[in-house]
Write a structure and sequence with these properties.
Length: 131
């Protein structure tokens, strides 16, 4: 299970739309490593006004943390909520390389290179084959 959903939030979902901030809080509490990683790259981007993006290149310390990151970024609902919450576009490679792009940079060459098939291939290495 990827999220630990509080009973009140589950009741809200069963009866209609859910407040996005409540959902984001559920993600934060359920996937703390993923939250920390995305928070850090978003903060790094925010503190670098001239940069188009900031990224994480440090592999997660355990498989549990890697799993959190994969679940957060593989879910359209979680990923898009994190993007709206932090005001960034997230991009993902190699089971741990998360990048936060400025929304204005999504149409840039830098973004296109990062998400390209070539970019994916160039960011592979033998030690990451099982991640």
């Amino acid at each position: 299970m990827s999220l630990t959903v509080p009973p009140a939030l589950l009741e809200a979902a069963e009866s209609g739309p859910v407040d996005e901030e409540d959902f984001v809080a559920c993600v934060r509490d359920s996937l703390p490593y993923a939250w920390e990683t995305v928070s850090r790259v978003a903060a790094d981007l925010d503190s670098s006004p001239d940069a188009d993006f900031a990224d994480n290149v440090i592999p997660p310390p355990t498989e549990a943390e890697r799993g959190q990151l994969l679940r957060a970024l593989a879910s359209d609902a979680i990923r898009s909520s994190l993007e709206r919450h932090f005001g960034v576009k997230l991009a993902f490679q190699n089971c741990h390389r998360v990048a936060a792009f400025r929304l204005a940079a999504v149409d840039s060459d830098t973004y296109r290179r990062f998400i390209s098939t070539r970019g994916q291939l160039l960011n592979q290495s033998p030690e990451l084959r099982d991640c």
